[in-house]
Amino acid sequence: MGLSEHAFQKCLSSKCGSQFDLSRALVDCPHCGSLVDIQYDWDRLPVPNALADFSQFWTQRNNPTRRSGVWRFHELIPFASQDLLVTVGEGQTLLQKADEVAKYVDLDPGCLFLQYEGMNPSGSFKDNGMCAAFTHARAIGAERAACASTGNTSASLSMYCSVTRLMKAVIFIGSGKISYGKLSQALDYGALTIQILGDFDDAMDRVKQVSQKLGIYLVNSVNAFRLEGQKSIIFRILESMDWQVPDWIVVPGGNLGNSSAFGKALIELKQLGLIDHLPRLAVINSSGAKTLFELYHEKGLRWNKGLPDKEIELQYFNKMESDQSKASTLASAIEINRPVNLHKCLRALDACDGVVRQVSDQQALDAKAKIAAGGMGCEPASATSVAGAKILREDGIIGKSDRVVCVLTGHQLKDPNITVAYHSTDRQEFERVLGGYGVKKASFPNHAIGVPNDLDAIIKAIKLYS
Ligand SMILES: *Cc1c(COP(=O)(O)O)cnc(C)c1O
Ligand SMILES: [Zn+2]
Question: Which domains are assigned to the chain?
Fold first, then answer.
């Protein structure tokens, strides 16, 4: 009972590699400042012989932790005992074949799948990780939890605090963009909300300092337990595909927690002999927040066996500072200058023969319209996955008959202002919301039709437009 003796925290740097127990959540390695990972002595843990063995747990679904889309894979996320697991019903998400969207991406019918993580209780994939962070926080007796957030992490944290009553939430937001859907959740759930005059990266720096000073449990993207929970997105994708590995997994890249978690999950499954090869991974930046794209694709930064070239990074971030360049995109969930999980993402890209691409807000919003017109909708950042798959297809990197999973990270209702402006006939409204981001026109608009309040005119309009 309690935290597992067979799980430990390990420094990501292959030069340092220090190990620590689970008694506190480390934001970085106390010896060298690198990120830390959760690692396991798998030999001492009960791991099923085959992934299909997980199907049997569905008969135990009256147990909330087996119903959870995260904890029904507890054996692959085994850092805490069953009695400690926190769940609010996260991870009941769906993988769906989307042939309309496949057409848009130029894939054969039956080849494009959308993983709807917006179906989570707070409306984004963040719940997959938050239940794991809460499990750890409960195990070490934390009373308050904090995060800096572009919105969805704070919505998730606030919800877990409100539902479980295990901790009190403190959230830090910048003064830049935060969608009203997300902010409204944090406020409604009663989180103590601190708005800083600064951007997301400033809020991130401050929350780290404050948490250390006040002993508050930090649930930012640097929290390695969150990434453990996010591994379950991969497990569910495989489950939905009858445990067959797809050719590609495409995911938006912000702080790079998701892509990092995906890579770790796949590396572990291979190591455990539960899959025999890895899919390729594509991480998609917004062209308004393209740190990973530039570092990986243009500057050649690589995992390099756990020792990424510090010089490349240093030069890049120094230049970012001296140019005072700031991320700016309508895809607010990925509007990030300094992705905190950069090194873990490099590991994932290395293991999965990965690629990184950038897409404009125009491409993302057009893809978003296509996603909602041919599947379940999503928020702008999520649509970068489909927009990214499309350009990888155009470049011939993704083949026409490859089996591609695009992860839709957040719910359609998170950011309705952008959607309404995109479909608006009012050019001023369009310009006001979208104009500053290089969005010239809605390629796939669904305009509301204005008609006089007159029965004949209404009937005529319906006949004309349907
Ligand atoms: C957090 C978030 C992202 C970015 O994920 P990272 O793990 O930070 O790369 C993308 N889309 C949505 C909707 C998010 O909430
Ligand atoms: Zn270290």
Answer: 94-122+226-417 (3.40.50.1100)
